[in-house]
């Protein structure tokens, strides 16, 4: 089996939004699709890997990192972990649209239409996690799961993981992922007054200042 974790106290905050806005402003749909294909291909490699994959989550797990974690077979989180797709608040879309497949419709809309970042307890209630541990116990919990999985024959892993994944693929999982890439490209190429203003502010005042301006539009929304 394989366990995936982050460094520095966080799983990952996701894609480098600064670089994306700087490098792909006004880019063609194909160029944008190529830019996100590496992350999507990684998520799909995890999805179809013959071995089970455990995501060990502490700290922030956001954006593209959230999507990669959700493609793993087991998601084991620290009680202090945070999850979400906050790029939604920058008039963006998730390039690997896995959320509707791992939670119910109401929850997926809540996460993807608000851009809220949620804690591990709520993520667990929504069915996103395999387990939640106290921060000091997370590593031991992952090791315990790895030892349990090591007791199974490898062909058992592969056959049962393949059976579950193929069930979702029969229901249209792969087509939905492709459609999600189209939505991401549309979000980054269609005219948007908000995104135009954001880019202007980022160039004039710096990316951090533009992020604060974007956040101010939601002031009070999370109270």
What would you say about this model in short?
The chain has helices spanning 17-24, 29-48, 63-71, 99-102, 105-114, 120-125, 138-150, 154-170, 173-189, 193-205, 207-216; strands at 2-5, 53-57, 60-62, 74-78, 82-84, 117-119, 131-133.
What does this molecule look like?
The protein is α/β, with parallel strands linked by helices. The protein folds into two domains: 2-189, 2-enoyl-CoA Hydratase, Chain A, domain 1; 191-223, no CATH class. It has eleven helices and seven strands. A four-stranded parallel sheet has the order 1-2-4-7. Helix 2 (29-48) packs parallel to helix 3 (63-71), helix 2 packs antiparallel against helix 9 (173-189) and helix 10 packs across helix 11.
- End-to-end gap: 41 Å
Strand order across the biggest sheet?
1-2-4-7
- When the domains are counted, the total is 2
- Can you identify the CATH class of the largest domain? Alpha Beta
Based on Cα principal axes, name the global outline.
globular
| Secondary structure: helix percent | 55-70%
Number of helices: 11
CATH topology of the largest domain: 2-enoyl-CoA Hydratase, Chain A, domain 1
Low-confidence stretches: none
Number of extended strands: 7
SS strand fraction: 5-15%
Task: Give the helices and strands, then pairings.
Layout: E1 2-5, H1 17-24, H2 29-48, E2 53-57, E3 60-62, H3 63-71, E4 74-78, E5 82-84, H4 99-102, H5 105-114, E6 117-119, H6 120-125, E7 131-133, H7 138-150, H8 154-170, H9 173-189, H10 193-205, H11 207-216
Parallel strand pairs: 1-2, 2-4, 3-5, 4-7
Antiparallel strand pairs: 5-6
Helix pairs in contact: 2-3, 2-9, 10-11
């Amino acid at each position: 089996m394989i366990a995936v974790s982050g460094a520095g106290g966080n799983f990952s905050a996701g894609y480098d939004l600064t670089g994306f806005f700087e490098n792909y402003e006004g880019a063609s749909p194909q160029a944008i699709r190529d830019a996100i294909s590496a992350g999507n291909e990684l998520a799909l490699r995890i999805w179809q890997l013959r071995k089970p994959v455990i995501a060990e989550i502490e700290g922030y797990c956001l954006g593209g990192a959230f999507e990669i974690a959700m493609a793993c077979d087991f998601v084991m989180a620290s009680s202090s972990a945070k999850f979400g797709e906050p790029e939604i608040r920058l008039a963006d879309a998730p390039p690997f649209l896995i959320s509707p497949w791992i939670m119910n419709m109401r929850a997926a809309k809540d996460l993807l239409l608000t851009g809220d970042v949620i804690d591990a307890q709520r993520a667990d209630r929504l069915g996103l996690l395999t387990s939640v541990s106290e921060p000091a116990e997370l590593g031991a919990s992952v090791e315990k799961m790895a030892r349990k999985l090591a007791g199974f024959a490898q062909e058992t892993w592969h056959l049962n993981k393949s059976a579950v994944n193929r069930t979702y693929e029969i229901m249209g999982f792969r087509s939905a992922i492709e459609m999600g890439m189209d939505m991401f490209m549309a979000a980054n190429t269609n005219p948007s007054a908000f995104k135009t203003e954001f880019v202007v502010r980022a160039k004039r005042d710096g990316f951090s200042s533009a992020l604060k301006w974007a956040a101010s539009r939601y002031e009070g929304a999370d109270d």
